Amino acid sequence: MITMAGLGAALGASLVLAVWALLPARTSLPQQLARFDARTSAGPDPAYGRLGPLARARRWLGDALTVRLARHGITYRSLHPDLALTGRTLEEVMAAKLLAFVTGVVLVVATLVTVEAATDVTLPLLSPAVLALGVGTGLFFVPDLTERRLAATRRREFRRALGAWLDLVALEMAGSAAPAEALPTAARVSTTWPMVVLGDTLYRATTAGQDHWEALTDLGHRIGIPELIDLATLARLVGRDGARVRDTLTARAASMRRALLAETDSRSRQQDQSMLVAQILIGLGFIVFVMYPAIVNVMAL
User: Fold this and answer.
1) pLDDT in tens, 141-167
2) What is the rounded CA–CA span in Å between residue 18 and residue 173?
């Protein structure tokens, strides 16, 4: 009885650890902007001093794993634009990946031990080891998928806000405002996070004496928004002619809206197809449920 209670406690602790390791921590927008600026200046994380003991342990574990992988040439460069949008660091993701792997292995082992103790069935040694490694390896990639899915959602939000921002910039320029004045002014209209990021980028470019279009190009590279890179390139090509820049921004906003509309329509069609498949599966399950007694009676004859 004591053994079963201990195994149950170990299994419950493994589940809690899995949830803690896989769920990303929620950070506020000011903290994300502070981390965003800290990565730009290559300075320390300003939120590190406010971390608790467990968070610091995760940070230390992620740092150690990141450094060890970097020595072997594994840097996860494709994940950096996603992390810039989600507000997490590579060290946090690496710690979550390692904890997820360990949790998966421990969870499978604890489950198999509990099953063996409850049923007195002895499993071969190789099968639990392969199953534990398989589950651990699968959970190892869950934090990557979580970050990429969240980053994809935020990119859609950014593109939607970017089209509205371009229209506002064009309106400001139509009122005889220069691009250097219209860009930050349009970003101050809204307090949504894409506008805050645009405004923060333009403010840092102004204080550093950097060209606004160059700063927007750097932002597009950092967060993986090719539309922002193309926009800055087109604006630099048309030169300083305000009318040409305004026409370019208006045309770019219209094309982005058409692209977003097509993407939304495609996603809605995919969701309709998934709902159709779910309805078919529910119907088949109901048919099997209704026919099961008759089939059992026929087979019993």
Assistant:
1) 888 898 999 999 999 899 889 988 988
2) 52
